[in-house]
Amino acid sequence: MRRRDILGATTAGAAAALLASREALGQERLARAQRGMPIPKIADVSVIECSPDGVRLTVVKVTTDQPGLHGFGCATFTQRADLVKPAVEKYLKPFLIGKPADRIEDTWQAMYNSSYWRNGPVLNNAISGVDEALWDIKGRMANMPVYELLGGKAREAVDTYGHASGSEIEDCLNSARKYISQGLRHVRIQVGVPGMEGYGSRRGGQRIPALHDGPVFEREAALKRAISLFEAARKELGPDIELLHDAHERYTPTQAVELCKQAEKFRLFFLEDPLSPEDIMWFPNIRRQTSTPIAMGELFNSPHEWTPLIKDRLIDYMRMHLSQMGGLTPARKVAAFGEIFNVRTAWHGPGDVSPVGHMAMVHLDLSITNFGIQEYSEFNDAAREIFPGLPEIRNGYLYANDRPGWGIEVDEKAAAQYPFHRDNPLNGGWGEIRLPDGQIVKQ
Ligand code: MG
């Protein structure tokens, strides 16, 4: 009896709260109407595809029923781009037409749950395209940049790092020197291994012996080469430059510990992806044995992957790819979650994030306290033609403009001049890399 009373009271309380929230919502709408600002509704959802620099970029455009009010979001999953388009057009578009364009959280939850099975990269990218477009629309409605909606600037600009690489160590150091001369303080260094398919650089020398004809990778040689690179970089580039390195999940869990331990004396800014997402339970081993800072997360799609690493303070930098997470809405929540545990951000930002996606990261970076560093890839003239409003970069810092929303537009006619290349038999997907004996290794 008593339990029923409590439940009854709770239900009555919930109903009253619901009525109050509906009333508040009604008042807000009334206030908007009185200001001559009707609630915009989603009138169309379309997909813009282009490849200005050989990388397939996908952007979603949400158009409202109010003339001139639209927004853009990044849905770039370059390796499976042809699957994202129908996910948007065949499922999200009919689901969203006629819905209010001003309810971002509600719309995100509806999209996320409507497939029942969730947290996959194709659907997350489709959701991200709509989510970021709704944030863009919200900013345009408010006549404010999105970073203002997120609380305003916590910094003036966003610090970035350069991608230095070379087939030989000296080539990589020369590449790093170029960035340093441009004023950058952080450089990611990657070097090829003679005869081998490394990551982030071209290979040099004769192909090493293998039992197959494809690209070949050998873990022990790569590990030794990475340590030689760190040693040379610290010696040649001096003590003040911040060095970053991406292991790209290619080592065994024990080799990952070894690499992080040996790297310790070279004081890296971070060592990225020493383990694959499948091996995240090994992170405590690294943490217990070395002070090398760890960055992880660009391959994550699900809260089940990043939550344990952040809450147990097993990583220093979260590297998630915003569109793979589902857009700005989940990213800002994870950033706030990380702030509590003093885990900083280093969102994944190479050339396979569209300029719209880069703007979303810049606006988030500007507004959070636990910002760490931002990866950025300089876009070419074709990208600047398609995406007017791309951020300026000065002395390694990215600056957002003060235009409403993301501050970026998409010239759809220009985008159509740079279609996806259809002569690639892998259709934008990546190929295979194998150990000398023929076993597949992670990319
Ligand atoms: Mg990486």
Short description:
The protein has 443 residues and is α/β, with parallel strands linked by helices.
Number of helices: 15
**CATH architecture tag of one domain:** Alpha-Beta Barrel
Shape: globular
What percent of residues adopt helix (DSSP H or I)? 40-55%
What's the level 1 CATH class of one domain? Alpha Beta
Average pLDDT over all residues:
92
Structural class: alpha/beta
Compressed to H and E, one letter per element, the order equals HEEEHHHHEHEHEHEHEHEHHEHEHEEH
Query: What is the CATH T-level topology of one domain?
Result: TIM Barrel
How far apart the termini lie comes to 61 Å
The CATH superfamily of one domain is identified as: Enolase-like C-terminal domain
What small-molecule ligands were found?
Answer: magnesium ion
Query: Using DSSP, what is the number of strands?
Result: 13
